[in-house]
DNA sequence: TATGAATGAGGATTCATTCAT
DNA sequence: GATGAATGAATCCTCATTCAT
């Protein structure tokens, strides 16, 4: 790629994160050693410690970057009225975020265990619970609560489960989103979704 | 229950598996050391090596035990006609298996990475793909394929996602199963499910 | 000394302590690496960890062995009447203990800092304070308290300070003891020491 | 005291020495890292290297500063007649020096080991030997030599041993000095100390 | 005067594994 | 069936030091 050592000046921190992300996602946090990361970057292990205080710090820094879009979506959701439309929009936005951040989510799933001793409120699990709490109505019938929850999780699992199905990625995303929105609608019997807002096209992820 | 140290004679292998299962599920395979397992059993590390050739052997032995019910279900499914009813029964049976084996599945999820270098066809992922292939129809519309897939995965994710919701476990299971069966039915427009077979009660998990 | 590897079976723990003692006394705890200890014993570093949980554990184990005679002396002193004679006997016994345990005390002095974060009551300093509290009378005039304290410390410092003076070690010890007993007597004006008990000969330190 | 960051310009070298002194005295030389020193000064480690060539250089520079008063006292002593009065004056001056430089001496004691590979004649030990050689008479009886030695060392040990005794510091100093002078006098039987020169008051330590 | 970025050597510690008994 | 003692390789991490800027 023509990236000579000189051209790399100042971006070492970023490069560490990139490589770490890649390896953590591939092999998991525990199995990835700092030696491996350092070697791939052609720096010494000690150099990593100039940029991050501990190995876990690298993990956390990655996680925080990855969690930000989720946090923003949660913030947005909390400020909206608790209507079906809001929930549908949440799901739609989540679908888009997921599409452009699939490796990140893969990374997060691989490394849930390694992150499970974070401060409460800081884990992926906590964020997912927060998310589902925006979607489900605690007074609804249990099956309807399940439908709401599942609108969210279906997007995760289906995307992964469909990786070996041959089809256009955007088509797959729309198919999954359709099912998610369907579940959501079924979870709200008697309510009417906003007309004219379907699955729609994803914006460019530039 | 009267299991004195003497009474344990001969079941050390089983006890190792139990403890390993517990710890692997809790902290993951990589983070769990043989020292930890040995200490909890009050034996020496060397004793473990009398029963298992390597650490990975413990993992594999656990995995094989856990995978057997899944394999049996797959075998059964393969011998049935590819009808909606078969699929519904698959989902029903899966739901029951899941209920009595939740820790096992938790264990499997935690340790996917550690098992990913197994022979092809031996991983959990492979079995899940096989399972979804029994459920989905490759010629159906994409959203309907998603619905079929999701019938399966919803059972996983929802059960975990509902852990912090207060309700009777059996009620939760039925609610989840209802949604799964619903998805399946919706994935087969025009077909009619066998009447008189609803969510039903789970058999005793003796 | 003809100590073949075979002859060493079972005494590795002791040998670690011996070598550690030697090196800690010579270079101090911090400057001594486990590699050094292991190499001198011709075992691996990991072998050390079979016998001691941490490096500090080695230090503590040494310290406890060394502190025992001191503790015994303290115990004895606490059970005696608080008379001048008792104090004189304490000093006499201390002098003897010191003579046969000089390397140990050298070791302790070298490594005070490394041990300073022990539990209260566990440090050398605490024991010395306890010792001086047996010797001095808090109601006496300050200079007399100083004399009592000094009876103890003089034995330490003088022995070290006299190392480069040529004389028979036992003569040196007696000379120091004489001064210590003198200080003690002067600290108790008006009291009469037990007659017939002078500096005397040290018992064999076999 | 109005020492703004700006006011500190140019005294960085001094500030490094101050912080190093503090930390070396507290934790010892080996346990104190340059990172620690730099952080406490809010500069980079590299900045330390502008002022000192190595870590050991800091130690040596401190030691030389601290040793100067001792060297001056030694020089003075060497030029005086070898009388009891000279010795008494040496002890008196030493007592005063000690009082205003207690942390320094604490520092030196902590870090004897670290300095033990200095050129001969450069160590604290060497100076203490020189000092005792001014005090003791090699032809005197051994116990009298011990008394002379101890006159010096008592001042060290007693001051530290009395730290946990409640009393006015100046009173303590005088008490210790009295004992030291006493020891000296007793070491010179038949000689008469200069009359009218007792323990006296310490000069201001400006 | 200082810093930012890095290095090389070495630190303590842990791990899975082995083997004679 | 199990232990006691040990190993070799790897781990994360810290340190004093350097040097271009």
UniProtKB/TrEMBL annotation, chains A, B, C, D:
Residues forming coiled coils: none
Transcription regulation is among the record's keywords: yes
Transmembrane segments: none
Signal peptide limits: none
UniProt protein name: Helix-turn-helix domain-containing protein
Domain HTH tetR-type span(s) in chain numbering: 10-70
Alphabetical keyword list: DNA-binding, Transcription, Transcription regulation
Cross-referenced InterPro entries: DNA-bd_HTH_TetR-type_CS, Homeodomain-like_sf, HTH-type_TetR-like_transc_reg, HTH_TetR
Residues in the DNA-binding region annotation: 33-52
Region Disordered, residue ranges: 187-206
Pfam families: TetR_N
């Amino acid at each position: 790629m023509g990236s000579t050592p000189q051209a790399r000046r100042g971006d070492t921190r970023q490069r560490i994160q990139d490589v770490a992300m890649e390896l953590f996602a591939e092999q998991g946090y525990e199995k990835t050693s700092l030696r491996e990361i350092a070697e791939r970057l052609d720096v010494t292990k000690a150099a990593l410690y100039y940029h991050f205080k501990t190995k876990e710090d690298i993990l956390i820094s990655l996680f925080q970057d990855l969690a930000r879009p989720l946090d923003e979506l949660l913030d947005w959701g909390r400020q909206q009225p608790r209507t079906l439309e809001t929930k549908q929009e949440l799901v739609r936005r989540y679908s888009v975020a997921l599409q452009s951040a699939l490796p990140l989510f893969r990374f997060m799933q691989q490394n849930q265990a390694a992150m499970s001793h974070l401060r409460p409120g800081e884990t992926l699990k906590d964020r997912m619970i927060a998310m589902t709490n925006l979607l489900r109505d605690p007074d609804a019938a249990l099956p309807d609560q399940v439908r709401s929850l599942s609108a969210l999780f279906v997007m995760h699992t289906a995307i992964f489960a469909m990786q070996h199905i041959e089809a256009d990625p955007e088509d797959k995303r729309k198919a999954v989103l359709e099912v998610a929105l369907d579940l959501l609608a079924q979870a709200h019997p008697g309510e009417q979704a906003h007309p004219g807002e379907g699955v729609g096209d994803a914006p460019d992820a530039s």
